[in-house]
Amino acid sequence: MAQSNGGIRHSFGLIFPVSDPDRFLVWLSMAAYGLAALYGIVRLLRRKPGTRTVTYPLIFVGFLLQTAGLYLRGMQYGACPLGNTFEVVQFIVWSTTFLFLVIGPVFQVHLLGTATAALVTATGLISLLVPNWDYPHTSTLFGGDPLIEFHAAVSIFSYGIFGLLSTVAILYLIQYNALERKWRSRIFALLPSIVKLDNLARRLLSAGILVLTLAFLSGLMVWFDEAWEALHWKLLTVAILWLGYGVVWIMRLRQRFSPHRAAICFLTLYLFALFSLWPVSRSHDSKDQESPPSTEHLTPPTSK
User: Fold this and answer.
1) Is the pLDDT of residue 293 over 70?
2) Is residue 64 part of a domain?
3) b/e for 152-178, b at 16 or more Cβ within 10 A?
4) 227 pLDDT above the threshold of 60
5) How are the residues of the chain apportioned to helix, strand and coil, as percentages rounded to the nearest 5?
6) Where is this region: Disordered (predicted)?
7) DSSP string, 70-96
8) Last residue of some domain: 88, 112, 133?
9) Greater confidence, 77 or 289?
10) What is the number of other CB atoms lying within 10 angstroms of the CB of residue 289?
11) Are residues 128 and 186 in the same domain?
């Protein structure tokens, strides 16, 4: 019974940290993202256009808080924090938010900020509410190899691009169905046009494939050196995503794929990318559990 209560207290401490500044900052960032999403949704339900003077600053504040939290986490290990499922998911959320902050003011797509805030809030909260995802590291991240760290960081950053692409795809599918079924509501009039969404999706797809190509090439270099035991599944996942997004890109260039079908493919591939993180993280976890515990405290003292 005492062990059960101790486990509950440990899980509660992981979810709602008091003395863990990095997780606390991440919680604050999710609160800021959630407020931005809630504001946009309320404005939409009231059939009023959202204003960027509220949504964008809230997302920017959340981004700064999340950056600080991930920075503190990285300082603990002396490397980019990508050692467990929690850190990987948070880095994807961070990348998606960063891209929105960069391209949002340029393209000025209505409700993109609200949709992005809702996506990163939901994804980030799931990673925070599952204590087992944030297991401690017992081995050096990436073996201290900068090429492996570059491959991991670029791969996850490409997932952030595809995360924003999936957000655009969701907005496109909503607007497409509204037009096809002739739904008459002022809410759909506030959504961005499918032409603007398709143009943005094309640019994000090209950028994502470029970054994913860098991840794939760097992964091949690491694989040839046999420097990372957990790379086999990861490299296979990157190759599948690279081929999948590449096929959609080529078919769109040749006008063989409609924007509607491409949007469905974007969502499917992104879900595959997220689910593919679990085996990689489990391989890290198994490797950590197989490492022998330290026996320093069992060494008998030397006689003087």
Assistant:
1) no
2) yes
3) bbbbbbbbbbbbbbbbbbbbbbbbbeb
4) no
5) 80, 0, 20
6) 284-304
7) HHHHHHHHTS-S-SSHHHHHHHHHHHH
8) 133
9) 77
10) 9
11) no
Q: For 87-119, give one letter per residue: b (16+ CB within 10 A) or e.
A: bbbbbbbbbbbbbbeebbeeeebbbbbbbbbbb
Among the residue ranges 88-97, 100-109, 249-258, the one predicted with the least confidence is 100-109
Segment 43-59 shows an average pLDDT of 82
Number of independent structural domains in the chain: 2
Is residue 255 classed as helix, strand or coil in its secondary structure?
A: coil
Query: Do residues 63 and 101 touch, judged by C-beta distance below 8 A?
Result: yes
Q: How many CA atoms lie within 13 A of 130 on its CB side?
A: 14
User: Of 61-65, 243-247, 295-299, which range is least confident?
Assistant: 295-299
Enter the tokens of residue 226.
Answer: 């046999």
Task: Extract the tokens encoding 51.
Answer: 């204003």
**Residue 296 within any structural domain of the chain:** no
Residues 153, 198, single domain; the answer is yes
| 297, part of any domain | no
Are both 106 and 211 inside the same structural domain? no
Domain interval for residue 153: 145-281
The CA–CA distances, whole Å, from 131 to 13, 64, 119 equal 9, 24, 20
Q: What is the pLDDT of residues 160-189, one digit of tens each?
A: 999 999 999 999 998 888 888 777 766 677
Mean pLDDT for the chain? Answer: 80
Kindly state whether residues 163 and 248 are assigned to the same domain.
Answer: yes
